[in-house]
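Session log. Operator J.P. requested a structure for one protein chain; no other inputs attached. Running the standard single-chain path with C-alpha cell output.
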Amino acid sequence: MADKTVTVEQTGSPIRREKSQRATLVGLGLNKMHRRRVLKDTPQVRGMINKVSHLVRVVDEN
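Structure written below.
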C-alpha cells in the first residue's frame, strides 16, 4: 500500500509576509516561485498548506 501524496506549487511571493508564513513555505520545501514538491499527505502537511493557501496551490493529490 503506497503512501498518499500531495503535490504543491508555490504561486505567491513571501516578500512582505509574516515570518511565520515564510518559515512555513521553507518547511514545505518551497522557496522560489513555481517550485513544486511532492509531500506525504498528513494532517501536519495539510495544516501547513492551509496556513499559506494564498501562496501555494495543490497541483495533484494521489
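Operator note: The first strand starts at residue 5 and ends at 10.
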